[in-house]
Design goal:
Length: about 325
């Protein structure tokens, strides 16, 4: 079959022949419709992601929309290594049918980033109910913007969206979020802006898609607000690290706040939990609550897709 193939770490994928995926009992091969080129896909392919097998050659891709032999469109993923989803044929352990009205390529572009914020939000709602205030760090990326939409759709009373892209912040403001620009003349400007927003309503849930110095600014903001014994505990969930892989967590914050710092990602969320949530997330794409702008690239142009940047997500489609 034709597939995107990564031959060595850091190599750009090429379109080449690759062995057909191994059959699984009870799972017929699926034909690719579209596979999103997510940050995690690049990380796994390069060996930098903690979940990488670092075995080459491989086909990249963690999820996709595909067509069954009877013509149904399904969302799928978790193909067995070295096969990923950027190939003509897929053999995967699950299939969830797309609802009517869902754009299959928007689903391919957006399901992975949408799930990254959805899972901690839904876990929080199941544990204690809808949070009063949610702070999203990195809200202007695709994952962060979908997390803002998810928090609003799940009943958060207040959503604070912090990010660098002013145009994206304006769109989130139009949805009802309180926006905080993280750009300024000095690093302290971001801390001050976050502090002002947090002072109005202490977040009960923080979704951090960037980590690094942005996380440190958030820690400073959270620590600067006066609290009392009745203040709600804070769940701080680390999801992505686009701003840096390290952040200094002040001991004083841990001692002065009822705060729990945890992570959400491959290994901390079970496959069963994720698959159980897929129909709810797909329904929001079908309804237009979730949006994921995309740029489609055929398999033969996977090298161009790998270099894609901007507000849209690259999606690999068959030639």
């Amino acid at each position: 079959m034709r597939a995107a193939v990564v031959n060595t770490p850091e190599a750009t994928p090429v379109c080449a022949d690759f062995p057909d995926p191994e059959r699984r009992p009870g799972h017929k091969p699926l034909r690719l419709v579209g596979a999103g080129l997510h940050h995690v896909v690049r990380g796994l392919a390069s060996g930098r992601h903690y979940g990488s097998d670092q075995a080459y050659p491989l086909v990249p891709g963690v999820d996709a929309v595909a067509r069954t032999d009877d013509g149904r469109l399904v969302y799928t993923g978790l193909a067995r290594s070295p096969w990923g989803t950027m190939a003509e044929w897929l053999v995967t352990p699950f299939e969830v049918e797309l609802p009517a009205g869902a754009d299959p390529l928007a689903v391919a572009a957006g399901m992975n980033p949408a799930l990254s914020g959805w899972m901690p939000l839904i876990t929080r709602r199941k544990e204690v109910g809808a949070p009063g205030t949610v702070l999203v760090l990195g809200a202007t990326g695709m994952s962060g913007s979908l997390a803002v939409r998810a928090a609003l759709s799940l009943g958060a009373q207040r959503v604070i969206a912090a990010g660098r892209d002013h145009e994206s912040l304006e769109r989130l403001r139009g949805l009802g979020a309180v926006t905080v620009p993280l750009t300024g003349a000095t690093p302290d400007a971001g801390t001050a802006a976050l502090g002002a927003a947090v002072a109005e309503a202490q977040p009960e849930l923080v979704l951090d898609f960037v980590w690094g110095p942005v996380a440190e600014a958030a820690f400073a903001a959270l620590g600067s607000v006066r609290v009392d014994d009745d203040s709600a505990p804070i769940d701080y969930v680390q999801i992505g690290s686009l701003a840096g892989g390290e952040a200094v967590l002040p001991a004083s914050l841990l001692r002065s706040r009822r705060i729990r710092v945890s992570g959400s990602g491959k290994g901390s969320v079970s496959k069963e939990q994720m698959i159980a949530e897929l129909p709810e997330v797909l329904a929001r794409f079908a309804a237009g609550t979730f949006e994921a702008p995309y740029t489609a690239y055929p398999l033969s142009r996977v090298g161009e897709a790998w270099a894609h940047q901007g507000r849209t997500r690259a999606v690999i489609v068959p030639d």
